[in-house]
Amino acid sequence: MDHFHYLRGHLHAEDVPIAHIATAVGTPFYCYSTATLTRHYTVFRDALAGLDATICYAMKANPNLAVVATLAGLGAGADVVSEGELRRALAAGVPADRIVFSGVGKTEEELTFALTCGIMQINVESEPELHMLNRLAVDLGVQASVALRVNPDVDAGTHAKITTGRKENKFGIEWIRAHRVMREAALLPGIALRGVAVHIGSQLTELEPFRDAFLRLRDLVAMLRADGIPITRLDLGGGLGVPYEDEIPPSPEAYAAVVREVLGDLDCKLIFEPGRVLVGNAGLLVSRVIHVKEGATRTFAVLDAGMNDLMRPALYDSHHAIVPVNEPPPDVERVPVDVVGPICETTDTFARQRMLPALRAGALVAFRTAGAYGAAMSSTYNSRPLIPEVLVRGDAFSLIRARPTYDEMLAQETLPDWLGGT
Hints:
Blueprint: E1 4-7, E2 10-13, E3 16-17, H1 18-25, E4 29-33, H2 34-47, E5 53-58, H3 65-73, E6 77-80, H4 83-91, E7 99-101, H5 108-117, E8 121-124, H6 127-140, E9 144-151, E10 173-174, H7 175-185, E11 191-197, H8 208-226, E12 233-235, H9 252-263, E13 269-272, H10 276-279, E14 283-294, E15 299-303, H11 312-316, E16 322-324, E17 334-340, E18 349-357, E19 364-367, E20 389-393, E21 396-401, H12 406-410
Parallel strand pairs: 4-20, 5-6, 5-13, 6-7, 7-8, 8-9, 9-10, 9-11, 11-12, 12-13, 15-17
Antiparallel strand pairs: 1-2, 2-3, 4-14, 14-15, 14-19, 16-19, 17-18, 20-21
């Protein structure tokens, strides 16, 4: 469920007409709904009722300060994967003791900053990282609160580019070595080993991969406790999918039922890292048709949004529903059209032969379920400015990221003195 709907023939975000926002900020832009963010967080939180659970929003899905602050105000912590995300989380009001630092390539500088901030947990993903962190913690005279991320070699059944729990993936400590590495970690002076972490991928639409990973986690906890290592936390990652097209992903309630069934009696604090499921369909990308081009064999609707603004279709062949901002009549004829952007790449194609009402130059269209990995993955390719982001609440909206001017973009670069720089 989201809060984007047609009212009197015009697409609204909550109570704000999308066309009004387009007039105010220009196109293309991202638009997020506070009501949808609130609903999704509340549903996820309520599904975990009765468990000792901390929800740490996976900021990589959408790191906008206003989005993070909205979720933090509802009680969310943050799962971060860089110093930049950690600084964003703190700036958005997330308490340090509700922040988990994940990621396979943390630098010494990033780990040092995390240690000085006193965050809740660092998820260690390799033996070299473990020893580097131990050395840094000892030098600072602190102990790092740590969970070791294990790779359970479980096929998540998702897109190959977003699966993270197979043995050939770069993430986590290999399953058959995890027991030995955790025993080693428990003896290091700069490490306070708290728990085990696992994350098997993104956009999962079945529960069995979760169950398989959790069962392996349960076995590992039993072995560690038999060795006298008191595991008190389990970081279960994220990965719940959202419906982009015809997927029917598990509900948070069904997911929570598997957690209770497999892990509910282990007396561990549980950490969850949902991202896409909280913000995915809380956002739209709104774009304007530049012109409609009739090719030799097909019709192209050329938009002012490009793959630099929404990378998912080019990167993952992902589907996003595309709808006119002005509601078409229910019996309107639909025709096949390729929806493309202005980038000088053939892969700058959002949809091929999509059945849509006939589009005209100047018409506004909206890409649904664009709140996750949309603005977060955008770039300035072709020297195109990053596009605005807008947050709606009720009948009000606020610009939460402005479109930079060309002068502002150019000011970030300088010429060396041999090219006339000063």
